[in-house]
Amino acid sequence: MRQLSALTVALLLLAGGILAAGCGEDGAAAGATISVYVAAPLCKEARQQLRRESGRVGDLRVRPVCLASVEAKGGADLARAGANARRATEDSTAVAFLEAPGPAAKFSAPIVESADIGWATATSGAAAMRRVLLALAEGDPNAPRTAVREVLNEAS
Asked: How far apart are CA 19 and CA 29, in angstroms?
């Protein structure tokens, strides 16, 4: 059996620490920053609501990620909608994806939900952000993604 060098062991431990700092299904560390992905039409209200709530829930910092607009002549740019959804699925800090009603919503939902991220449509960015913050406040602080997903799935 080969022995691992001290450098290899240190790198493995560092990689494990970085992965543990995310907030996917494994939970979130105290003081972690989590992300809420927000469709362009909802972003201004969502940011304002988050500011009113001090941008925190307990030990967690909440960061809104405003997405590129999917509006296109005569409908929605589904390629952009897909890119927005995939962006959220690639972010280990993502706990929610808030989408405006419309054709893009039906397209982004299965992509986001396949990554076990809470997804919801809303006409009010403020109301949607309040639901996310309430889910974080009432849910398990060690599993924010699960807490948000459960609340958003109930509302859908």
From this structure: 11
Pairing relation of β-strands 60-66 and 56-57? antiparallel
Give the C-alpha separation, 67 to 103, whole Å.
16
pLDDT in tens, 21-64: 444 444 667 678 999 999 999 999 999 999 999 999 998 999 99
Tokens encoding 49: 């609501």
CB 32 within 8 A of CB 24: no
CA distances from 128 to 38, 39, 78, 109, 156 (A): 9, 11, 22, 15, 12
DSSP class of residue 68 equals P
Tokens representing 134 are: 């309430």
